[in-house]
Amino acid sequence: MLTETEPNRSNSQTDSSDSGRLWNEIRDGERSALSELFCLYYRPLYLYGCTIVRCEELIKDSIQDLFLTLWKNRTTINDARSVSSYLMSSLRRMLLRKIRKQRSICERNKSWCDQVAGYEPTIEELWARAETDAEHCRLLAGAMECLSGRQKEAIYLKYYGGMSNSEISTVMEINRQSVYNHVSEAIRQMQGYIRQVKAA
């Protein structure tokens, strides 16, 4: 079991050179590199998971499973051009698989269905964990409440994850034009909300 210890980083982007080095060390069988990579990405992966599903335990378990699978397959994994994109997209697929599986159980267990399936988290829940100014967080939270689930996901990956549109398209499994559309429309809606708040 990997330890859920978060490094003392500011917030948005992990160090790509560290990621690449650790990735190659994992492929070479360095167990300590797995723990380092886990600590490096635990926070952004957790916050990204919050944009997809509400259940904290499901997110935490999926992150654990992701890194254990990575270690198990270390001899066969390829060189990753973007470690961040690889981990985010892998977590997304893992969460969606588990949600689909749970949905079949939900047909017999409505309480679990209400907890997991079809939930769009509030931005307060997501950004309350972020290290930011309280007033800025409040304004951002309100602005993002105007967005659809897919828009929230795209904005998170772009501005918190620091990903390019190409990387986001890989993670979200949509084309780059769709990414651009989601992000640009989200920014337009958020700017409109902020203007209204400041004018009030």
Characteristic key phrases:
200 residues, mainly alpha
Uncertain segments of ≥5 residues (pLDDT<50)? 5-13, 108-132
Integer-rounded radius of gyration = 18 Å
How much strand content do the residues show? under 5%
Helix-residue proportion: over 70%
Task: Name the helix and strand elements from N-terminus to C-terminus, one letter apiece.
Answer: HHHHHHHHHH
| 3D shape | elongated
- Mean of residue pLDDT? 77
Structural class: mainly alpha
What composes the largest sheet? none
In whole angstroms, how far apart are the ends?
Answer: 50 Å
- The number of helices is 10
Secondary structure: number of strands = 0
Report on the structure:
It is a single chain. With 200 residues, this protein is mainly alpha-helical. It is built from 10 helices and no strands. The protein has helices at 16-27, 31-50, 56-72, 83-106, 110-116, 123-127, 134-144, 149-160, 165-172, 176-199. It is elongated, with a radius of gyration of 18 Å. The model is unreliable at 5-13 and 108-132 (pLDDT under 50).
What is the secondary structure topology, with strand pairs?
Layout: H1 16-27, H2 31-50, H3 56-72, H4 83-106, H5 110-116, H6 123-127, H7 134-144, H8 149-160, H9 165-172, H10 176-199
Quick summary:
With 200 residues, the chain is mainly alpha-helical. It has helices spanning 16-27, 31-50, 56-72, 83-106, 110-116, 123-127, 134-144, 149-160, 165-172, 176-199.
